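Quick one, tokens below:
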């Protein structure tokens, strides 16, 4: 884990005003959790394995790319990010490591950094890099640590997999969202930008829309996670 120092930023969504949101100092995994790490967890807590996990905690695609409960197979690299993992399973993994999933604000705070700047969101080349990744297929099969090392010493915030946060859909469950009175599909329409703080941040729009479409039992082949921990 690396230390993320205390700071503040204005998130795309979630603030009732455009005032900065404070992020307290915390620890974050430098890399997403890998297949090998998740396998070690399953061997210790087999109730979370593919055949034994309860349906309310993971859908049928849970670890579907693995060959069996305790074998991720030759086609999946040991040091590739584990994907097809539900929020419940990711949360359990982090808790068993003495940690937790990062909050959305924590994740976005770290993700706005490039190699040299804490906040690179206004940097055109940075946003183009993120958007170009969204168009690339099968990056989830790549090993961790091959993207750039950001200001905090964290890799793969962009360019590898999407990642769970502890409060992944909280923005769209608040009184600020049309989700309270309309269907989920409206999260993807143009009016989703009504309460946004930066109408040009298309990369962040896609992340928030993706999160808003998820449920805690969902699993997808390009969705992984990393753990955080409070800094005392």
């Amino acid at each position: 884990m690396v230390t993320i120092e205390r700071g503040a930023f204005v998130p795309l969504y979630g603030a009732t005003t455009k005032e900065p949101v404070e992020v307290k100092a915390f620890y974050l995994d430098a890399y997403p959790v890998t297949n090998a790490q998740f396998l070690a967890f399953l061997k210790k807590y087999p109730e979370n394995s593919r055949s034994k996990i309860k349906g309310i905690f993971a859908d049928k695609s849970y670890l579907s790319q693995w060959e069996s409960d305790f074998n991720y197979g030759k086609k999946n690299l040991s040091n590739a990010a584990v994907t097809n993992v539900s929020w419940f399973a990711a949360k359990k993994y982090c808790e068993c490591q003495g940690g937790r999933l990062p909050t959305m604000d924590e994740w976005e705070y770290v993700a706005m950094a490039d190699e040299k700047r804490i906040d690179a969101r206004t940097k055109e080349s940075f946003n183009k890099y993120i958007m170009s990744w969204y168009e690339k297929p099968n990056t989830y099969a790549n090993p961790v640590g091959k993207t750039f090392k950001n200001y905090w010493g964290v890799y793969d915030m962009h360019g590898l997999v999407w990642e769970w946060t502890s409060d992944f859909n909280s923005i769209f469950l608040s009184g600020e969202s049309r989700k309270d009175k309309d269907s989920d599909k409206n999260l993807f329409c143009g009016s989703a930008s009504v309460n946004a703080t930066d109408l040009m941040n298309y990369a962040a729009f896609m992340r928030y829309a993706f999160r808003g479409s998820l449920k805690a039992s969902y699993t997808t082949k390009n969705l992984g996670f990393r753990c955080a921990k409070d800094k005392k």
